[in-house]
Structures are given as C-alpha cells and as structure tokens.
Design brief:
Elements lengths: L2 E5 L3 H10 L4 E6 L5 H7 L2 E4 L17 E4 L11 H11 L7 E7 L10 E2 L10 H20 L2 E7 L1 E3 L6 H5 L4 E2 L6 E2 L1 E3 H14 L4 E4 L6 E2 H12 L6 E2 L1 H7 L2 H6 L5 E2 L2 H5 L10 H12 L2
Parallel strand pairs: 1-2, 1-4, 2-3, 4-5, 5-7, 6-15, 7-12, 8-11, 9-14
Antiparallel strand pairs: 10-13
Helix pairs in contact: 1-6, 3-4, 7-11
C-alpha cells in the first residue's frame, strides 16, 4: 500500500481523509500535538513537525510516495518559505514522492474585470498573499520538472460549507457593493474540493493547473442575498465602492476588488469531475437542510 502524507491538516484535509483510507497508508503532518489523538482516531498516522521549523521536517524525508499539500503559505513577504522548506526536506530523502497535489488559490489571476478565464490566463497577483501562492506554484512546478514528480495544482476560489457561510456577517449587517460596483466571485464546496483532490490524484496531469470551481456565475452581493434569503436574514445593505473604501478594512476591500469568472471545463474533461454541489444554490440549500434536521 502506498504511503501518503497530508501537509496542512485543516478542514479540507479532514474532508479528504475518509476518501483516502483503505487505498493509502495516510500520514498527517501536525504542528500541534493536541491534534494527534483526533487524527489517529480518524485513521491517520500523526507526524509531529512544523513547516516554520526546518529542523523538524527531517522525519518526512523519504516518508511518502504521495504528498497532498494543503498548507497555507507563509504570513509575510512575497515568497512562500513553508513550501520551500517542505520541498527541501523531501529532496533529502532516499526516495522522492511520485505524486504531489497542491491547493492554490484563484487569487493568482488578480483582477480580470469580470472576464471568463481559463488556466492559460497570465498570472497577475494583486495581493501579497496571492504573490506567495504564485511563488509556491512556481517552486512546485520547478520541483516537478527537476525530479520527475507529477505535480498538479488546484486553484480554488472561495471555499464554503455549512459552517463556512457568511451568516455572521449578515447578522452584523455588514455591507455589500451596489450592483454597478459589484464583482463576480467564484465558489467551491469544501466537500467537492476534497473530491477534486482525489480526482487530481488519479487523473491530474504533470505540471498542470486546474480551476477548482463550481458552475455558478454570480456577483458577491447576489451570493450574500442567496444566503440571507435561505436562512431568513436581512439582505446585506448595498453601498457604493467609494463608501466601502472608507468603511471597510483593506483586507475586506481586497476581496471586493477582483472580478473574474472561472472556466471549469478542464476539471470536468481531464479530472472527470462530477460535482456534488454544481452551484452555490445547491450547497446553500444543503447547508440549510443540514442545520434544520
């Protein structure tokens, strides 16, 4: 049985784990010892290490045949030092992984003025965190070419689930942009992203990127309105961009400054994806039903 290492053990990794058990011997890289019991009970073998401490990563050298890299990038700078340390540790082993899947972000494209884009779109990251993601992608693709490791990259947009909806934001009355100033957003349900990870593991091509997005085409305010209507909440008040720039934080504004529509045909054709929640409306409806069982 092949050995598989999960790096970045957050929500999507938790959702992916049950799809892997029985097919792989799964190891989970954990920086918090308190999480070890939970992951062990779920069927994974904990490996205590920290991507921010290079010396702790010695134990993963040569450990796995496959690596699923879900970890977020470093918190500062334009380079993702966490990915750099991970790859340095992997290259020290007597054997290298044969396969590596990385979850990146659609933010690497920057603002596309609402255009529909595919994976050939030039990368123009506008934020520091998106530039770190581009750096991670470039590191991984060089690693794949240099060592003949099959690297596939999933560029995920806004990840949502029943417990990851903007309900609290709506309850607080946080505003959205008026229709003329609003931006197109893209979404993927966390369960579908877990399934896409496994699809990429089976069918992903070497040094290939995939827009891991559902079929929805909606603006941010429409998304908030959809959630508000389904959960019986007041709709978000609409304000002009000029007012939003005065009232909202730079981080909030960064999400309201990029507009694009992701073409997801590649995941359907190459990864043979069959989304459980092909639209946000499907996912929000399922979340409402789950909450009201």
């Amino acid at each position: 049985m092949q050995k598989l290492l999960i790096v970045g053990c957050g929500d999507v990794a938790r959702r992916t784990l049950p799809l892997l058990l029985g097919h792989f011997r799964v190891f989970a890289l954990l920086r918090d010892p308190a999480q070890c019991a939970s992951w062990r009970a779920s069927g994974a073998l904990p490996v205590f290490a920290d991507l921010d401490r290079a010396s702790s990563l010695k134990r993963i050298a040569g450990l796995a045949d496959i690596v699923l890299h879900f970890a977020p990038p470093s918190e500062r700078g334009t380079h993702d030092m966490r990915t750099r340390r991970l790859l340095a540790a992997l290259t020290r082993g007597k054997s290298l992984p044969q396969r590596l899947i990385y979850i990146s972000t659609s933010g690497v494209y920057g603002d596309c003025a609402g255009a529909r884009i595919d994976e050939t779109r030039p990368l123009r990251p506008a934020t520091a965190r998106a530039r770190r993601r581009v750096d991670a992608e470039q590191q991984l693709r060089r690693f794949g070419r240099r060592h003949a490791v099959r690297v596939s990259i999933l560029r995920a947009p806004g990840i949502y689930a029943a417990d990851r909806l903007p309900v609290e934001r709506l309850q607080k009355g946080s505003p959205a942009l008026c229709a003329d100033d609003d931006v197109f957003t893209n979404h993927i349900h966390a369960d579908d992203l877990a399934r896409l990870t496994c699809a990429a593991l089976r069918f992903g091509r070497a040094n290939r990127c995939y827009n891991a997005s559902d079929d929805s085409e909606m603006k941010m305010g429409e998304y908030f309105d959809l959630v508000a209507a389904r959960f019986g909440l007041p709709p978000a008040p609409r304000i002009a961009r000029s007012e939003a720039e005065r009232r909202l934080s730079p981080l909030q504004m960064s999400f309201m400054s990029e507009s694009r529509r992701l073409d997801n045909r590649r995941i359907k054709k190459e990864l043979r994806a069959r989304l459980r929640y092909p639209s946000v409306a499907d996912g929000v409806d399922a979340a409402w039903q789950e909450r009201n069982r």
